[in-house]
Specification:
Order of helices and strands: HHHHEHEHEHEHEHEHH
Number of helices: 11
Shape: elongated
CATH architecture of the domain at 104-255: Alpha-Beta Horseshoe
CATH topology of the domain at 104-255: Leucine-rich repeat, LRR (right-handed beta-alpha superhelix)
Number of strands: 6
Largest sheet: 6 strands, parallel
CATH class of the domain at 104-255: Alpha Beta
Distance between the termini: 50 Å
Strand content: 5-15%
Strand order of the largest sheet: 1-2-3-4-5-6
Helix content: 40-55%
CATH superfamily of the domain at 104-255: Ribonuclease Inhibitor
Radius of gyration: 21 Å
Length: 258
């Protein structure tokens, strides 16, 4: 017979209580609010991360703005917001990023209502350890959102913007952003990102011009590129991005799935 740890049992009980934090019954709601008040002290940060992971995997739609800010500990390294349909308040998101400023991996997949230029700029300035961003299937995403990330987040090594149809060939052309903002490269204090992995699959209007801009931006740093279901051709990749030789067949295999 399996013996369950005290930590597991405590986490399970707390999750069940927090599920009722917006329940119509006062008794359940007050019990959940009591737990929330304790978690707000940050004395239970080691436990709250496990609780957040449980909600992320099993009950994402139940998580509110308040609950997310409470559960995210200061030492959080990875945050996934896919399915968090009740997280809508941008001010609470700002508060979350200020509190958990050590986040390294951020997934905003499907977070249509949260994405904005201001948010991209804020997370770049606040999450100074950020190295991986995923914004797959986020209809508001445009070239400008991505360009702000590239310009103000030099520590970024992985970027996934797959299945966003408003992305164009200029997405990796940072000069286009500078032109729109009437600034020159000399006027902007920015460092080229250290991207080594990029996924633009499903951005169906992208052509080889996009790959050309990406090669100019990343050079030999880029090691993995997914251009499946785009109009980009791959035969020049060994010349423009020499480190991609090991994944060239994987890219072409992905294109053959059409």
């Amino acid at each position: 017979m399996a013996v369950l740890s005290l930590h597991f049992l405590a986490k399970t009980v707390i999750v069940q209580i927090l599920i009722d934090h917006n329940d119509k019954h006062t008794e359940y709601r007050e019990r959940a609010q009591g737990i929330i008040r304790q978690l707000q002290t940050d004395h239970y940060a080691s436990v709250s991360e496990d609780i957040l992971e449980t909600f992320t995997e099993n009950y994402p739609s139940i998580v509110s703005d308040e609950l997310l800010c409470v559960l995210a500990p200061p030492h959080l390294r990875k945050l996934q917001l896919f399915g968090f349909t009740n997280v809508k308040d941008i001010e609470n998101i700002h508060q979350l990023f200020r509190k958990s400023s050590k986040i390294e991996t951020l997934s905003l997949d499907g977070c249509d209502g949260l994405i904005s230029i201001d948010l991209c700029y804020f997370l770049c300035k606040t999450l100074t350890h950020l190295n991986s961003v995923t914004m797959e299937s986020c209809p508001p995403i445009t070239d400008e959102h991505v360009q702000f990330l590239l310009m103000y987040c030099p520590s970024l090594t992985h970027l996934n913007i797959a299945w966003n149809e408003d992305i164009t060939d200029d997405v990796f052309n940072l000069q286009s952003l500078l032109r729109r903002t009437s600034q020159s490269a000399a006027d902007q204090e920015w460092t080229a990102p250290s991207l080594n992995s990029v996924d633009v699959s499903g951005c169906r209007f992208l052509t080889s011009n996009c790959i050309r801009h990406l090669a100019k931006l990343c050079g030999s740093k880029l090691q993995a590129l997914n251009v499946s279901y785009t109009q980009g051709t791959t035969w020049r990749l060994p010349y423009s991005l020499p480190c991609l030789k090991t994944v060239r067949c994987w890219i072409e295999a992905g294109r053959r799935k059409d």
